[in-house]
Design a protein that fits this description.
The protein has one domain (18-269): Protocatechuate 4,5-dioxygenase, Chain B (3-Layer(aba) Sandwich), CATH 3.40.830. It has nine helices and ten strands. It has helices at 32-44, 95-105, 122-131, 149-159, 193-207, 211-215, 217-220, 224-227, 236-243; strands at 18-22, 50-59, 64-66, 113-115, 139-144, 167-173, 252-255, 258-259, 262-263, 266-269.
């Protein structure tokens, strides 16, 4: 049996931070730099009572809750060696957290659905396996009901009270994500110009707390439509920004650099 790590104290304000992280494909587990960055990050965080994660790989409307109990993972990828399909991450389900999420989100015209048999997808378990490798923190996954930045921001705002109950809210995507532009074998500082330009713009917008620019990234960012031909991997950022809006001015980049030419910028609010 794996020993449970003693809970670290919450911040002085009693509020958990909010994360947006770039999660990578299953081979992320073979990248010793990136895995160490994620492990170091989690070691400095207060230990959560539970994790609520929104992944780029689950779009479902209305809002749907998955993995309310421990079920097999969703291996939602192809073209990788079989060993990646044998990875296990049996994190406890979080039915109590699911009830709290329903209470925060449910209302006239906003139903919340359940998909208890849907396991965590790779946008959830790949980074969490590096951050909480003992799989001893309850995890609940929440679908993205839309890719509209404003709607996702509002969704995050409604989830923000969970931070005061020890819940770590995580948006999991990729800061740039154009699979046609992958440059395998490149170093952590190497990337196509469009990826570097978008990453620099996004990092500066976050530093300025320029929420309006970020929400309109498709028009304002350099190479916005090249960096995100489809916006699913940037979209979880807006859930995180909504949940962590009170700490937007104190956000910081924890992980940066590139992986196969894609920007892996990951940020913490609070």
């Amino acid at each position: 049996m794996t020993a449970t790590t003693p809970s670290a104290p919450l911040p002085a304000a009693g509020r958990m931070p909010v994360l947006y992280l770039s999660h990578g494909a299953p081979p992320l587990a073979d990248d010793t730099l990136w895995t160490s960055q994620l492990a170091d990050w989690s070691a400095k965080l207060p230990r959560p009572e539970a994790v609520l994660i929104v992944s780029a790989h689950w779009e479902s409307a209305p809002v749907t809750l998955g993995a309310t109990r421990t079920v097999p993972l969703v291996y939602d990828f192809h073209g990788f060696p079989e060993r990646y399909h044998r990875v296990a991450y049996p994190a406890p389900g979080a039915p109590a957290l699911a009830a709290k999420v329903r209470a925060l989100l449910a209302g006239p015209g906003t139903p919340v659905h359940d998909a208890p048999d849907r396991g965590l997808d790779h946008g959830a378990y790949v980074p969490l396996a590096e951050m909480y490798p003992d799989a001893d923190v309850p995890v609940l996954q929440l679908s993205m009901p839309t890719l509209d930045p404003w709607e996702l921001l509002r969704l995050g705002r409604r989830l923000a009270p969970l931070r005061d109950e020890g819940v770590l809210i995580v948006g999991s995507g990729f800061f740039t994500h154009n699979l046609r532009g992958l440059t395998w074998g490149t170093g952590p500082d190497e990337a196509p110009s469009w990826s570097k330009e978008f990453d620099a713009w996004g990092g500066e917008a976050l530093e300025r707390s320029d929420l309006d620019a970020l929400l309109d990234f498709g028009h304002r960012a350099p190479a916005g439509r090249i960096a995100h031909p489809r916006t699913d991997h940037f979209a979880p950022l807006f859930v995180s920004l909504g949940a962590g809006e009170a700490d937007l001015g104190a956000q910081r980049t924890v992980v940066d650099g590139f992986w196969a030419g894609l920007a892996k910028r990951s940020v913490q609010l609070g």
